[in-house]
Each structure stands twice: as structure tokens, then as C-alpha cells.
Design brief:
The chain has 377 residues and is an alpha+beta fold. It has 2 domains: 1-109, 2-Layer Sandwich (Alpha-Beta Plaits); 111-377, Rossmann fold, CATH 3.40.50. It has 12 helices and 15 strands. Strand 2 (42-48) and strand 3 (51-57) form a beta hairpin. Helix 4 crosses helix 6 and helix 10 (286-300) runs parallel beside helix 11 (318-327). The protein is globular and about 70 Å long. The protein starts with a strand and ends in a 7-residue tail after the last helix. The structure holds S-adenosylmethionine (SAM). S-adenosylmethionine (SAM) binds next to helix 6 and strand 7. InterPro entries: SAM-dependent_MTases_sf (IPR029063).
């Protein structure tokens, strides 16, 4: 068994994102593997045959008597954003660092649905799919129920779900996600897409939209979907579920059960207009959205939950956002700029990682932020 593996990344469809992909995948691996394994493996970016790769040195097991858990590490590597494949290094030649002797490593199947679920819908303002997978992995890793990412039991919420990029990633991972979106057009487009996709792929399913009412007040719409490979599974209620709430995210605390979420993943409004999408939802600043929504989100989280929020550093300051989250009982773990990358002229993106302030592993996870020596420049 080789000590060193190389993670090959799928080439990004997005040119801007491709430039940041190496550094972002290293930061992702630092947090995700560190949180899951309790120890951060040595990581380094390399070039292999002209392609970017992330070198992962398999960590020794925590106890001398324990066997290294290669299956778990393999499953984690397979979920990391943009993983194309993993190659084990059999032999290194110092004279030719770009061409070590490599052997392909068979990874477990961690995705239940094909990639077209994530890639078919294209629209202005869509969050990049690879970056969305990174957000999902980070939020899940911070949760004490992190293994649920691999067995389908992790409860995930995207409270700003747009046309469902996060929900689609979660479905591919076998989860049963919940999303909320205020823009009716987005909700309708996503519902229509999902219905078509389910029919095209011949999944047995139900898909129903009703009014979303709380104490007699109509807040918007509620769409519930269930999908299964066969009728029996669907009849038993053992399929995957998806809930799509067409409402203001600030009302979610009234709509969803308290302490029901393990991983909260969101791409906050950037505070800039995306093309023609200058509707009312863009009037509120990202900080205002966070201020009004954070207390409700907090009430939905289990004690050991994890949060990953994408933010535009130009319109949402790290210190201000951290203060708003702290007021709601949430502790930010990641430093300003820990996942910094440029999207375009008006978007300088970063990720805020946070946990409820009584999270049982908060201090240990916070240490991952301070020893992230390879911060993105
Ligand atoms: C950056 S976009 C997220 C895009 C999404 N990840 C996707 O790929 O489609 C932010 C989303 O937050 C939504 N939004 C803004 N304010 C909201 C609110 N108060 N309640 C619910 N959704 C809101 C916007 O309509 C927008 O779709």
C-alpha cells in the first residue's frame, strides 16, 4: 500500500475558477480530511504530466495498534470537489518529478446520480458546481454527524438555494436536502427542471407543490419530491426526498423543525446584480440578509452542526459577518481569506466556516483554521 496518493482534478468548465482550483482543493482537503480523520495529512500541489494534482500523504493511524482506515480515506477523496481520479505513487525519480511511477486506485462509488443533474441547468448567478461541492464537503466535515455524508443520513439545508446547485449535489451524494429561495422564478425553474430530469432518467417519483402557510399567513410555496429506483422503495417511503421552500429565508425558523439540520450550505447574495436579475431580492445587502436570517438558521441547527457560507469580500466584511453570526450564537472558525479567490471584477469570494457556539468539537475544529499554513494568497 502506497503512502502517497495523487488526486487528479477534473478540468474545470469555468476558466476563472480553474485558476484557483489548485489552492482551493488544497484548502478543502486540509479542512475536510483534518475534520474527518482528526489529523491533517501532509498536502502539496504538484504537476503530473502537465496536469495539476494534489499530493496526499496518508496519515499514520491515531493509535499505534489501529489499522489505517484506507476505505474511509478513499471515500473522502472520492467526494472532494472535482475529483477525477486517484493515483498511488509507486516510485519517485528525483530527476523527473513530473513523472513518478503511478498506479490507478479504485475509488468507491460515492455519487448516486450522473453529473447532468448538476450541469444541465445554466443561468446567470449559478454557483459553480465544483465550488458548491466544496461548500457541501466543508459544512459536512464540521458536523459531528459527518459520516452521514457517506451513508445518506446527513440533513443538509441550503437556505439561499437559487435554482438548486447545492440541492443537486446533495441528491447526487444520496442525501435528502432542503432548500429555500425567495425568487419565485428560481423556484419554478428548479421545480420544472427536476420534474423533467426525473422523468428523463425514469426515476419513480412524486413531486407536489402546495402553499406554505404559517399561522394562517401564506409565506410562499412548498414543493416536496421523493425519488426511488423502483415502485416498492417509493411505496415504503424509503426513497430520497427533497424539500423546496419558496419563501424568505428569514422565516425558516418558523417553517422547519428546530434542531433538524446537520450541515447548512449557502452562497450569500453577492450584493451585485447578475445581468437582468435586478428584482427585489437584490435590494437587501448581504449583511442584512445574514442579520435577519441568522437567528432562524441557528434554531434549525443541531448542536454539532457545520456551516459553510460563500461570501463576496467586496460587499461583506469578514469581521462584520462574524459579529452578526456571533450575535446569533454561531462561531466563525475560518480566517479572513482562508478560501479567497477571484470570480470576476466585482466578486472576491471567500468561505466562512462556522459552528454553533456549543458545538462539542468547536475548539479542535478551530485549530484547523490556525494551522492552515497554506492560506490562499
Ligand atoms: C448567490 S445566489 C445562490 C445561487 C445558488 N447557489 C444557485 O447556484 O442557484 C443567492 C440566492 O439567494 C437568494 N436570496 C436572496 N435573499 C433571499 C432571502 N431573503 N430569502 C431567500 N432567498 C434569498 C437570491 O434570490 C439568490 O438566488
Amino acid at each position: 500500500m502506497s503512502e502517497v496518493s495523487l488526486l487528479l482534478r477534473a478540468p474545470s468548465a469555468n476558466r476563472v475558477y480553474a485558476q484557483a482550483a489548485g489552492a482551493l482543493s488544497r484548502a478543502e482537503a486540509h479542512w475536510v480530511l483534518g475534520a474527518h480523520l482528526g489529523v491533517v495529512p501532509a498536502l502539496r500541489e504538484r504537476r503530473i504530466g502537465g496536469m495539476g494534482a494534489l499530493e496526499v500523504r496518508r496519515p499514520a493511524p491515531a493509535a499505534a495498534s489501529a489499522a489505517p482506515d484506507h476505505r474511509r480515506l478513499d471515500a473522502l477523496l472520492a467526494t472532494l470537489s472535482g475529483t477525477l481520479g486517484v493515483l498511488d505513487v509507486q516510485q519517485e525519480d528525483p530527476a523527473a518529478p513530473e513523472s513518478p511511477l503511478l498506479r490507478p486506485r479504485a475509488l468507491p462509488d460515492v455519487l448516486r446520480h450522473p453529473s447532468d443533474l448538476e450541469t444541465t441547468l445554466r443561468y446567470r448567478g449559478k454557483t459553480n458546481e465544483q465550488f458548491t461541492a466544496l461548500l457541501v464537503n466543508l459544512a459536512a466535515a464540521l458536523s459531528t454527524r459527518r459520516d452521514g455524508l457517506l451513508d445518506g443520513t446527513l440533513d443538509l439545508l441550503d437556505p439561499l438555494c437559487g435554482r438548486g446547485t447545492t440541492l443537486n449535489r446533495a441528491l447526487r451524494l444520496g442525501l435528502s436536502p432542503v432548500g429555500a429561495e425567495i425568487d419565485r422564478r428560481d423556484v419554478e425553474e428548479y421545480r420544472a427542471f427536476l420534474g423533467t430530469w426525473l422523468r428523463t432518467h425514469r426515476w419513480k417519483h412524486t413531486l407536489e407543490t402546495t402553499r406554505l402557510t404559517v399561522h394562517g399567513e401564506q409565506l410562499g410555496s412548498r414543493t416536496e419530491a421523493e425519488l426511488a429506483p423502483d415502485k416498492q422503495t417509493l411505496r415504503r417511503g424509503d426513497g430520497q426526498r427533497l424539500t423546496l421552500l419558496g419563501c424568505d429565508t428569514a422565516r425558516l425558523g418558523e417553517v422547519l423543525p428546530a434542531r433538524s439540520v446537520d450541515a447548512l450550505v449557502g452562497d450569500l447574495p453577492y450584493g451585485v446584480q447578475h445581468g437582468g436579475r435586478a428584482d427585489g431580492t437584490w435590494q437587501r445587502s448581504p449583511l442584512e440578509v445574514l442579520r435577519t436570517a441568522a437567528p432562524g438558521w441557528r434554531s434549525l441547527l443541531r448542536d454539532g452542526a457545520g456551516i459553510a457560507l460563500a461570501v463576496n469580500r467586496r460587499t461583506l466584511d469578514h469581521a462584520e459577518a462574524s459579529a452578526v453570526l456571533a450575535d446569533a450564537g454561531l462561531r466563525v472558525l475560518s480566517a479572513d481569506g482562508a478560501f479567497r479567490h477571484r470570480v470576476d471584477q466585482s466578486i472576491d469570494r471567500d468561505v466562512l466556516l462556522a459552528v454553533p457556539d456549543d458545538h462539542p468539537r468547536a475548539d479542535e475544529l478551530a485549530a484547523l483554521g490556525t494551522d492552515q499554513e497554506d492560506q490562499i494568497p
